[in-house]
Specification:
heterodimer, A: alpha+beta, Thrombin, subunit H, six-stranded antiparallel β-barrel, 2 helices, 38% helix, 25% strand, B: mainly alpha, Arp2/3 complex 21 kDa subunit ARPC3, 6 helices, 74% helix, 0% strand, globular
Amino acid sequence: MRARSSFYIMNLEEAQKRIRWVTLGVLVFLAIMLTILDQTGNLDSVFAFVRDPMSIAMSWTSKRTNVVAGALEGPRDLQSAREQIVDMQAQIDALQRENEELREIQGEYQLLVDLFNRARQAPDFQRLTASVIGQDPSSAVHSIVIDKGARDGIAVGMPVESARGLVGQVYRTTANSSQVVLITDSSSAIPARLGTSRATGILRGGGLGGVLTIDWIDLKHQVEVGEVVLTSGLGGRFPQDLIIGRVIEVDRREAELFQQAVVQPAADFDALEIVFVITNFEAVDASVFDETGP
Amino acid sequence: MFSSILAAVPIMALLTIFQTVILPRFSPFEANPSLPFLVALAFSLLSNSEEGVIWAFIGGLFMDIFTIAPAGGLSLSYVAGVFVASMMIDLLPPSRLLIPVISAVVATIIQQLVYLVYLRIFGIPVNANPLIFVQVILMQAILILPIYWLISLIKRLMRPRPVQI
């Protein structure tokens, strides 16, 4: 009798173990299938079906969260505001002096502009305002979710900026939300130009805990700390002259062919609430030039 | 078991919204703890391994929907982390403090490593900063305690122990 019961217990344990491993196997298989389906683009409509109602809930939650966050930040802001007033007063004095000097320079500049009859004007982009309603749940990649989607005219590839500077590019859309890959993401690579030295390079995101850097800057350029970093427009994915940030460090080694610059982004990625999607910029498909001929 | 899996769907959906909308607004850290993962882990420790890994899969699936990384990566890494932690539960001292903490540390390490390898396989460059890695492990090891105790309390309220008279 005892032998039979111990036999049953052993069988039960065996069965439980088997169920455990089978469950694991099935779930791993499902995860791999998900990856395959996602990579082949067969999951887009299914995920959009779930993402759409959830983004409505996210938008609703985001508005309430902003109210609470604003209320919590209030008293802290008041203290820091007093300190900032003193600092800013000193800055105003310095800026007024600088302004006088700049007026003179502006006069000279206007003359030069007229002389060369340079008609180049920054294209007047149409910008669609969107609220940031979420961030990427995975800390290994950097993206945000905004409350405007295909229904509002947003399409994949459109550049996204904040009031301060470039934020990223639309990665995918659903009917009423979009996901934007940030310039700080480690997969991001944007052709950039420096404002003063006119040097060009590729701006790369540093990912988690990393910094923005511009690689492949020719050594012939004397890059200075403080230079403004803009989009160069090369490659056709971004319009020209969108502000990205400023150079805060230059890594120049004479033994190497290229130098590198560390960039402080103009946009504050920790406090992104409102962004602007440039809706009338048509990206140039440069992939045809990558194909090698027969 | 089926009802528990059904319950996982709305719970994980809500946790994903919390993770993507609320947590980044209030967290001062660059990397945040993963609440769906911790809930799945706590559930696995308090019920059984199979239910736990299914919860982990559902949690990972919802997170996969809102990440730009290839779908399936978070589901796979969550399942791996929770499964390994639930396998070693018998080896741990029977303590309501040590079991969740040690499990969270082990599960997080496994989850992060699996996800890192997964991203590398798909050619996604990841800056694996060891300091942030340690920071995530510590945060999850601390946060698992209230989650573990809360789920334990809910389970006790929903399914009281039978009393023999």
